[in-house]
Amino acid sequence: MAERSPGVATVNEENARPIVQSSLCQDVERVLISAEEIQDRILDLGRQIDERYTGKDLLLIAVLKGSVVFVADLMRAISIPHELDFLATSSYGASSVSTGVVRILKDLNEPIEGRHALLVEDIIDSGHTLAYLTRLFRARNPASLEVVTLLDKPTRREVDIELFWTGFSVPNEFVIGYGLDFNQKYRNLPYIGVLKPEVYEPGSE
Ligand code: IMP
Ligand code: MG
Fold it and tell me: How confident is the model at residue 9 (pLDDT cuts 50, 70, 90)?
């Protein structure tokens, strides 16, 4: 009989459940969108993407780092064959204000000419980042270029973004979790939440 090695999980159907962890939760003021709501919406988006791109050469382009968790679930909700590529960007200037000047830290591995490119974003806020990226990619002559974003903050929009699917519209509050960060933390939360004000402004308690 095989010995169980420490640190290796055994598969047990009864124990199968979504990964939910509780550390860091004390910083969260409230949950805006639960893990279950996110998964349900992603299944809808996956079905719509299946319909839209059946028979087409689909390439998902995930914008690092915020959309990593979203794309990991979204691609498994898409049943048609597709490929995945990553792009890393960083905004110039003050971190809290998006200027629209975006620096490419990691470009795509493959050309997108003639392919159906679908940009996967975590959140559209002012719209500057996405406006820059869509201009950049359009110049590479894809067969089509569209956007799917998990979250949208429409009240904050400064530039128009076309052709996009949205998971959820959120109010004008800073949100974290499910890939989205505050100072690089909280990406691992399984839900979308709002932080307690004292986390932003230490000492204001
Ligand atoms: P935009 O250029 O203003 O649309 O900024 C979009 C980027 O800002 C997103 O891809 C996020 O990385 C970041 N961002 C905007 N709002 C939030 C938020 O509420 N929480 C976490 N990150 C955000
Ligand atoms: Mg982002």
Answer: low
Over 60: is that where the pLDDT of 15 sits?
Answer: no
Judge if pTM exceeds 0.90.
no
Q: In this structure, what CATH number is given to the domain that contains residue 140?
A: 3.40.50.2020
- Quote the percentage of the chain above a pLDDT of 70: 82
The reply to whether 83 falls in a domain is: yes
So which residues are the catalytic ones? 125
Number of domains in the chain: 1
Kindly state whether residue 180 falls inside one of the protein's structural domains: no
Per the domain annotation, does 179 fall within a domain? no
Domain that holds residue 143: 37-172
Q: How much distance in Å is there from the Cα of 195 to the middle of ligand 2? A: 18
Look at residue 16 and tell me if it is in a domain: no
List, as ranges, residues with CB under 5 A of the ion ligand 2.
66, 122
Non-local CB neighbours of 131 within 8 Å, separated by 6+ positions: 100, 159, 160, 161
Ligand nearest to the CA of 154: 1
153 preceded by cis ω (within 30°)?
Answer: no
